[in-house]
Design brief:
heterodimer; A: about 280 residues; mainly alpha; about 80% helix; about 0% strand; flat; B: about 260 residues; alpha/beta; 3-stranded antiparallel beta sheet; 8 helices; about 25% strand; binds adenosine-5'-diphosphate; binds magnesium ion
Chain lengths: ~280, ~260
């Protein structure tokens, strides 16, 4: 449809370069325009900061409360990455177990699904009753993050080329050779796809648990700062913490995408010329 | 007729799948030492099943595979699938090295054999390339090099060139004959192409449609090495006509009760 409106067909290379520039510039433009409108509305209508702080005030708060927000960010990041690491180990481990034994898979898989579909916000308070706070927060991050790793790794393990498996058998491969030389590498792209989703989810799990812990806990994560600032009607700090959280989410996603690209560069996204 | 000196004999092989499909029914044939035998038949007649049974990848429901020199250790068989079946995460050298690696050989010890196998298929300078970077024909060469790296006495190929364009197929046919003559072993080549089987084989066995069994067989008495001159010769055309005739007769043959 867009092509029909264009004056003439652009050469593919030029169009794709223009495309990728637009893909960066347009969201930045949207952001700046939105912030300017927001700033203008707040100033013209003289909205008090405890109702809606101007973007400039949010940025200023980010600087003035920098120390406390930074240490909270580090705490949330630590939980997120611990939860993610556990999700990776747990998800891949369960997937391997399932691929080994149908009985185990049939016995456990429905509960993995139930754990996944039950809203974590409803599980968090219970976990906080039974577990020390840090463990409960970690458990929440794990619960939401392990499933995509499990599901994707299972898919990856099941999609191993049948002929390759036969080839390994023909040459008398042991079970562990089949696992480490064939199945795990073959499942890697799926596994990394799952991990990329899990990164964002681990952050969500950590935040949900910190919010649920609320004033009861002695927590110091970013979400706890949001809850705390909410009680004190420190709205600018809420916005500043929220901004940090979403930037964190984006950075985690970008990091995991980069990791995935790095590990698969020769295999899936190879742009290298044949080694002539 | 055929092999006075059989290396492997299929004796009354039957294969019934769990689905109830009878793929093979009393399949009998021998393969002689240093023969190049093509197994020719229509799609679905059980050629792959028969080859997998010879390789030990599948067990027959009835009958047996008899190796005259006793059991066939894995390293004496090289198998080439219809698809290249390469590991996309490993480069060409690592793919070719796989059979030796699985046998516990270190990369260093395997290097000379890998280099020799790659040279034999004309890919000596591609060791570091990844499968994605190769054409279909090159991938197939890597697959053949991998089958050759253990210096097998038996090379089993399951329609390896079916997916390639004709020019590439001709070149690989030529190269395969070269490989066969230098390896001094036995080749069992599954195909549905009359032309390919006549060009390559010293003997062709023709199978009936499902359930597969041997309908007839034919010696191709032309001398090796065979080249483009053979491909355009009257003898070649005559053989092709004859084999086509047998294949057509086989297609309409009802499986004997
Ligand atoms: N694993 C299997 N389970 C059930 N049926 C199979 C299986 N493998 C092959 N078959 C059936 O057996 C018949 C012979 O198959 P195959 O040996 O692959 O034939 P060809 O290689 O000659 O095309 C076909 O009808 C096919 O559908
Ligand atoms: Mg087949």
């Amino acid at each position: 449809m867009m092509n029909a409106a264009a004056p003439g067909p652009l050469p593919g290379a030029v169009r794709s370069r223009r495309d990728s520039v637009l893909r960066v510039l347009l969201p930045v433009f949207t952001l700046v325009a939105g912030a300017l409108v927001w700033e203008a509305v707040v100033r013209v209508k003289a909205i008090p900061p405890y109702v809606l702080p101007a973007p400039s005030l949010v940025l200023a708060t980010l600087v003035s409360d920098g120390a406390i927000l930074w240490s909270s960010l580090l705490a949330t990041l630590a939980t997120t990455f611990q939860g993610l690491a556990l999700a990776l180990v747990g998800g891949v481990g369960l997937a391997l177990l399932f691929s080994r034994s149908r009985l185990v898979e049939y016995s456990l898989y429905p509960y993995a699904v139930i754990l996944q579909v039950t809203p974590v916000i409803a599980i968090a308070p219970l976990l906080l009753v039974y577990l020390p706070q840090h463990a409960a927060v970690l458990a929440c991050a794990w619960i939401v993050a392990f499933f995509p790793v499990l599901a994707n790794t299972t898919l990856g393990l099941a999609s191993v080329d049948r002929n390759l498996i036969e080839l390994f058998r023909l040459y008398g491969a042991t079970r562990s050779q089949i696992l480490f030389t064939l199945k795990l590498p073959a499942a890697l792209p799926h596994m990394l796809g799952g991990l990329r989703i899990a990164g964002g989810l681990a952050l969500i799990g950590a935040v949900v648990a910190e919010i649920a812990a609320g004033s009861a806990g002695a927590g110091s994560g970013l979400a706890y700062r949001i809850a705390e600032a909410g009680y004190r009607l420190n709205i600018p700090r809420m916005f500043a913490a929220l901004l940090l959280l979403s930037v964190t989410g984006v950075v985690i996603f970008a990091l995991l995408s980069a990791l995935s690209r790095f590990l698969l560069r020769r295999w899936h996204e190879s742009e290298l010329a044949p080694g002539a | 007729m055929q092999s006075e000196n059989p290396a492997v004999a299929l004796c009354g092989i039957g294969k019934v799948f769990e689905s109830g499909v009878v793929a093979l029914d009393r399949l009998d044939f021998n393969v002689g030492r240093r023969e190049f035998v093509s197994v020719l038949g229509p799609s679905g007649c059980g050629k792959s099943t028969a080859l997998r049974i010879i390789a030990g990848l599948a067990a027959p429901t009835s009958g047996e595979v008899v190796w005259t020199e006793g059991a066939a250790p894995a390293r004496r068989i090289g198998f080439v699938f219809q698809e290249p079946t390469l590991m996309p995460w490993a480069n060409v050298a690592a793919n070719v090295r796989l059979p030796l690696k699985l046998a516990g050989m270190s990369a260093r010890d395997a290097a000379p054999a890998v280099a020799a196998a790659l040279a034999r298929v004309g890919l000596a300078d591609m060791a570091g390339a990844y499968p994605r970077e190769l054409s279909g024909g090159m991938k197939m060469r890597v697959s053949i090099a991998r089958a050759l790296v253990t210096q097998p006495q038996f090379l089993l190929l399951d329609e390896p060139f079916a997916a390639l364009d004709e020019i590439t197929r001709f070149r690989l046919n030529d190269d395969l004959l070269g490989v066969w003559q230098t390896m001094g072993g036995t080749v069992v080549f599954v195909t549905h192409s009359v032309f390919e089987s006549v060009f390559l084989s010293s003997r062709i066995v023709v199978m009936t449609p499902r359930p597969g069994r041997i309908y007839d067989e034919m010696l191709i008495d032309a001398p090796y090495p065979r080249d483009d001159a053979f491909r355009t010769s009257a003898a070649y055309a005559a053989y092709c006509r004859q084999v086509s005739g047998i294949l057509h007769a086989a297609m309409s043959a009802e499986a004997a009760p």
